[in-house]
């Protein structure tokens, strides 16, 4: 495929994505990610796996929201600091 053909194909794809109904965006995104990472077997399996459909409890939702708010306030330990603490 020539550079010009690749550019035309990308323009066509952008046009098609712009015309998609909002209800299909998630499915198309997952499919494009699958194509992009098809050589990564672990990621491919994760992308093909069904989404978690198990409902959360109100307590889990509250804990998740509390943790998110802590993160937004900067109350977290960086990955590097956590790694150093574990190795100490």
Give a written overview of the molecule:
The chain is mostly helical and 88 residues long. It folds into two domains: 1-50, no CATH class; 58-88, no CATH class. The protein is built from five helices and no strands. The protein has helices at residues 3-19, 25-36, 41-48, 58-72, 79-87. Helix 2 runs antiparallel to helix 3.
Order of helix and strand elements from N to C terminus: HHHHH
Number of domain modules:
2
- Low-confidence blocks of residues: none
Tell me the overall shape. Answer: extended
Helix content: 55-70%
- First-residue to last-residue Cα separation: 54 Å
User: Gyration radius, to the nearest Å?
Assistant: 20 Å
| Overall strand count | 0
Number of helices: 5
Largest sheet: none
How would you classify the helix and strand content by structural class? mainly alpha
Overall average residue pLDDT: 88
Percent range for β-strand residues? under 5%
Ordered list of secondary-structure elements with their pairings:
Layout: H1 3-19, H2 25-36, H3 41-48, H4 58-72, H5 79-87
Helix pairs in contact: 2-3
Compact summary:
This protein has about 90 residues and is mostly helical.
Highlighted features:
69% helix, 0% strand, single chain, mainly alpha, 88 residues, 2 domains
């Amino acid at each position: 495929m020539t550079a010009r053909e690749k550019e035309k194909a990308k323009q066509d794809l952008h046009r098609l994505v712009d015309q998609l109904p909002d209800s299909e965006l998630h499915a198309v995104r997952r499919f494009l990610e699958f194509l992009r990472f098809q050589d990564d077997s672990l990621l491919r399996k994760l992308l093909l796996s069904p989404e978690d459909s198990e409902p959360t409890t109100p307590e889990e939702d509250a804990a998740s929201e509390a943790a998110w708010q802590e993160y937004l306030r900067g109350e977290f330990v960086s990955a590097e600091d956590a790694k150093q603490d574990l190795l100490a």
